[in-house]
Every structure is written in structure tokens, then in C-alpha cells.
Design goal:
By secondary structure, the protein is of the alpha/beta class. The chain is built from 13 helices and 17 strands.
Length: about 400
Amino acid sequence: MSYSRRNDTLFIDKEALSSLALVQEGLLKPVTKLMDEATAKEVDRTKKYKNMPMPYSFILTPKGKLNEKNIQNFKKGDKVLLICDNKKVGELIVNETFKIDVNERIFNIYGTTDKSQPAIKRAFKRIGEWAVSGEYKVEYEPIKKSIELFKSATSEIKGKICAIMLGANPLNRAHERVIRQSLDKCDLLVIFLMKPFTKEGLDYEIRKETLDILLDNFIPPNRVLVVPFENSYIFAGYNELILDAIVAKNYGCDRLIVGRNHRALGITYNQNQMSTIFDSFKDINIEIELFNEYVYCDTCKTLVNNNTCPHGQHHHIHYHHKPLMELIKNGILPPTILVRKEISAHIISKLFPKRFNNLQESYDMLFPSSGILEEKNEEDFYIKLMELYQTSSLT
């Protein structure tokens, strides 16, 4: 069915649909609805909503000529169909329509309007000049399933539940160290695995599979829960950490674990007084715990941080995702001090399937065996290859 000629419709993308569902399911409380113009302006000015920190207003401003034409013609009380991918996903009863300043909106979310940044450029393409407020209902199963997964896994937990927001792009040794450190301080660790709407980096499914490899083989069972976390445009810029804390709290977590190198931990200046983003957390009622950045020290021969290593920065190897992804995108296995060989092997085998003319023959000729003929896959091959790289008697 085509909705393109109807004047009672709004066309939204999955990113907007996800954000609407997030609020509908109570994960951004105290925000429970779209804000009208007066409320939106007050929130953008004060950075608070109902005495809780809220970095910017929650409004619906879908771009497109038909959308903006329809919004301007909506009257209070009109029923509007919400359409995503040419399917009805919800309804909205119009309360108010109003025009917004797109530049101001994007600055409030991202802290900049620099179109040279891909995220900003994309935001300008999807945020329109007209907003609509009103009661709405949407159908979006992914967020409902995430809530059900969390409730099912935590129903018997009586102790502390910690949360960590993780990209795992790719999953590296520093991530693993943080996971282990976090498990010492809680009864259950919830990893909210970022699921962005862009195609940058590794696919979500590959990142989920690598996390499963770690948890199934190297972490005590039933101590970690992985919850998909759709990382829409609202979780952007320097406001990301505040919204992360609100979501973690509304899920039911007691503590949010954050790296000291998190981009949102910048220092801001207000009336010549220095403050940090932690000033915003006092009303969210969730503990925030910082951990130091882990690096590999070529003298200590292990993972360290600034508090545990006496050697200088020139001895440290950092776990930055960009160079790791460059290796992976070029089909190169990262060193095992950076990424576990089981993780690297899985990622490379997924990104470069069927890259060998005769994998079994190469495997049999290169590697020692138990004498029993076994069929091997590409993942097995890469693991064995890494073990050869680690052989030291002739190096």
C-alpha cells in the first residue's frame, strides 16, 4: 500500500522510530512523550526536564517536502499515521505544530554544526524545520525484546547490577580487562552492545558473535548479559553519557561503568566556574564508576594503566579501534596482545569468506596434526596461523 499521496501521514526512518519507542517504553523517563514548543524551548535552555538532567528537548521533526507540508496543515486533534519503510508503524494525535531552528537543534544535540563531520552532515539531511507534538503509539519489537531479555535475566538478581555501554568495534583485550574488572564489583554485568543505524565499522551481528566467543569460553557463566542497544542520533556528542546513564537507570541498573577517556567527560566552563559532566548525574540516582584507560606496556609485558605502570607513554601500545579496524579491513590478523586470536579469526573469516583456493590442503601442509583427518574451516585456519606467528624458537 502506498501512503505517498495521503495528507494524514508522517514518514519517519527507523532511527526516529527507535527513539519514539525508547520513550514510549519508559527508558528515557521522566520524558514520556513528545514535547510541545514551550516545553522544548525550556528544556533546551535549562538542560532539565521535571528537575532531571535532559540535554535537549524530545521532539519529532521528520524532513521531507511532504512531511513538512503535512505538518503545517495538521490541526489539533488530527490522527496522523506514522509510516516507516512504507509500513504503518504507529499513530499520533496532534496537539501542536511549530517551526524550529535546525542549526540550533543540531548544535543542542551534537555541540557543533560542522558539516565536515559525517554525523553532522547526516543530521542535516534528516532533521526538518517543522515539529509536531502529541500523544503517540508505535510498534517496534527490538526495544520490547531488549526489555523482556533484561527482565528475564535479572528477575532473580538480588545484588548489584552494573552496566557498561560497549561498541566492541572490534572487541579487544582492553575491553576484556574492563569486563573482568567490572565483574569483581557486581552480581551481574549488563553489556549494552551498541547497534548503530550506520554501516560504519563491523556489522552488529559480527560484534555480537565475537562477544559471545569471549563470554562462552573465557568468562564465568551467567555473570554477563548482553542487551542490544540501538544507538540512534539522540545518543550523540557530549550528551551521550547523560542519556546512557538515564537509560541504564530506567532499565534497572545500579551503576554505570565509564572509561576516563570517554568523549563526554570533557570539562565545561559556566560563569568562570569549572565543572564536569558529573554535575548532571546527581539527580539521576545511578552510581558512575570510572576506570582508567588500559594500554599494553612493552616493558611490563602486560596490560597496565597510568596508576600501575612506572614506564612512560613511549612504552605503551594503545587499544584504539581505528588502527585495529584498518588491519582487519585489509585482512590482517591483529597481534594477540591487542585482540584474542579466536576473536580475530572469527572476524576475518566473516569479512573474507572463501578467500583460499584449497583451504584444507593448505591447512594440512602448514600445520601439525593429531594424525586424524579433520575437515577445517577458515576460522580454524586463522587460529592455527596465529599460533605459528607466536612460535618463538627461530625468532
